[in-house]
Amino acid sequence: MNNNFAAPLRRIVLALGFGALALMTGCATVAHPDPRDPWESYNRAMTRFNDDVDKAIMKPVATVYKDVLPQPVRTGVGNFFGNLGDAWSFVNNVLQAKPEGALHSFWRVVVNTTIGLGGVLDPASEMNLERHREDFGQTLGRWGAESGPYLVLPILGPSTLRDTIALPVDYLGRPQAQIQDVPVRNSLTVLEAVDTRARLLGVEQLLDQAALDPYTFQRDAFLQKRSNDVHDGAPPDEERYDLDEPAAPAK
Length: 251
Prior knowledge:
Blueprint: H1 3-26, H2 40-68, H3 71-95, H4 99-114, H5 123-126, H6 136-142, E1 150-153, E2 157-160, H7 161-173, H8 182-198, H9 203-210, H10 214-230
Antiparallel strand pairs: 1-2
Helix pairs in contact: 1-2, 2-8, 3-4, 6-7
């Protein structure tokens, strides 16, 4: 494997490995976990860890970023990374046999990369080319892979077992991963993370006010969103991968 890709992948594997270690030591302390969240003890501990990292590093950096850069610049940064995301969405729309989504994603990339000055501007939206966000986790779900248990990853946050398995493919599929210059690629990764966090400033306050248990609220909202993503806004009544087949009625 190319060394440029090997190092970031090793970091992902190590992070997941530490998460698995914490999982093995902490998943048995919740008496009656939600069937979708059998590893709740670990997930709550990892959520607290991620919150601490966010308060110590990500939130302060994102706050400075938002205060220093004017809104038009931040909008341009968001558009740029959105355009890169459209390229990977195109691939996943094709893999999911969604021609409309694939065409919209393709033309969004073409229009925004050319007329939009490399994606900094977003004329494609003004042309009614809708953004169809798709990732490899959704692609797996499209073809029948169940979400599996809820899982909170170190630093990366809420996920599911299916999405975690898809994570290396999503990483390598992003256009950023094809950049050979390691400092440039890493700088873009950091900038994307900071820009994303800056757009979420204030969300934690709303989260604390919305529910008595922010963890449960965040988990349920995430799982509902991912189900909507996979099923294009029309999810089944409930995904229950954890239950046995119903017993035959007594005669």
